[in-house]
Write a structure and sequence with these properties.
By secondary structure, the protein is an alpha+beta fold. The chain folds into two domains: about 210 residues, no CATH class; about 110 residues, no CATH class. Helix content is about 55%, strand content about 20%. It contains ten helices and eleven strands. The longest helix has 30 residues. The protein is elongated.
């Protein structure tokens, strides 16, 4: 099962409802966070329970530090007596990771790039762009390329069948376009496509003499109209190339900064919610340091890693919902405690 294609189809459906792929990503974020709300409650209960039980857990660890096996048994017994599951706080993070990976794979996939890669939302110019992406000028007769670039059929396919030109012919495989030899910027790129990958009747395939196919470089999102000629059982073409120019996208940097800011706000709210819970001073200092260092580390990682703008939008909205969730659930837990 192609989960990436299913994610793209889900975004298409949400786009049909909301009228925008940016809103579709926000809607997907709300759906995911809504489904994870009960686990969020469980996570915050677990965190509060951990902090309240920490002094007793430390006593057990000190008492049985010379016998690790017995200490483990006593700790398990302690968890059971207090109805505490130390793994409950990790479950929401473990579930969200595959969703993040799927969304990342969907937004860099040829299906999404062809369908909505150039979609803009608010200040975001393209949902599929990264902080420092390579770009080329479309329809200038020259592909901007790097080694290992991949190419896909974009939209328009015209096939010459005898004296007739057939428009909008379908290509049966998304990986039909092959590059012959190595890609060297500045040298011609040779393409081929098997006739069997062209969705025509057998009697028509025998009469095919050439084709005009719009190809897209997945990495740079550049589109060129390439003319193919028939050679034996394939259609072959050659296109001049040059080295791509790297471009800086400030709108993606704004998203990265918003993500870092929302992470810091989330950490501060969670620490404020637990300030009245008795806590080991060293542990409190470590949590404070992690609350400051973790956003900085992730910010640095996202500046280096090629994260699409749409994925960053998902993460920012997810953090905002996390802040709201933390406030609401903490009020709920405080009300339960007072009662």
């Amino acid at each position: 099962m192609d989960f990436t294609a299913l994610t793209v189809e889900l975004l298409k459906g949400l786009n049909n409802i909301t009228g925008s792929y940016g809103l579709a990503i926000i809607a997907l974020t709300i759906i995911v966070r809504g489904c994870l709300w009960p686990l969020g409650v469980s996570q915050q209960r677990s965190m509060k329970a951990m902090q309240e039980l920490q002094p007793k857990m430390k006593l057990i660890q000190e008492r049985y530090k010379s016998n690790p096996q017995e200490m483990q048994q006593k700790m398990m017994q302690f968890y059971k007596e207090n109805n505490f599951n130390p793994m409950a706080g990790c479950l929401p993070l473990l579930i969200q990771m595959p969703i993040f990976i799927l969304l990342y794979a969907a937004l860099i996939s040829p299906q999404f790039i062809q369908e909505a890669g150039n979609s803009h939302f608010l200040f975001i110019n393209r949902l599929d762009t990264t902080l420092r992406g390579s770009a080329g000028s479309s329809y200038d007769g020259v592909f901007s390329v790097s080694p290992n670039d991949k190419f896909v059929v974009y939209k328009k396919v015209k096939v010459q069948v005898g004296d007739e030109v057939l428009d909008n012919v379908k290509i049966s495989s998304k990986n039909a376009i092959k590059v012959q030899g190595e890609i060297v910027p500045g040298q011609s790129v040779d393409f081929k496509i098997n006739l069997d990958d062209i969705d025509l009747k057998y009697s028509q395939l025998e009469k095919v003499s050439g084709a005009e196919i719009e190809l897209q470089n997945i990495k740079t999102r550049e589109v060129e109209n390439v003319k193919f000629e028939k050679r034996d059982n394939i259609l072959a073409a050659s296109m001049p190339s040059n080295a791509p120019q790297s471009q800086f996208h400030p709108d993606v940097l704004i998203l990265i900064l918003l993500f870092a800011g929302s992470m810091i706000a989330t950490q501060k709210i969670m620490m404020a919610a637990n300030k009245n819970v008795s806590q080991d001073p060293m542990q409190a200092q470590m949590q404070k340091m992690m609350g400051t260092m973790m956003p900085v580390m992730i910010l640095f990682m996202f500046i280096i890693a090629p994260i699409p703008a749409g994925v960053l939008l998902y993460l920012v909205v997810s953090n905002i919902i996390q802040i709201i969730q933390t406030i609401v659930i903490n009020k709920q837990l405080e009300a339960e405690k007072n009662k």
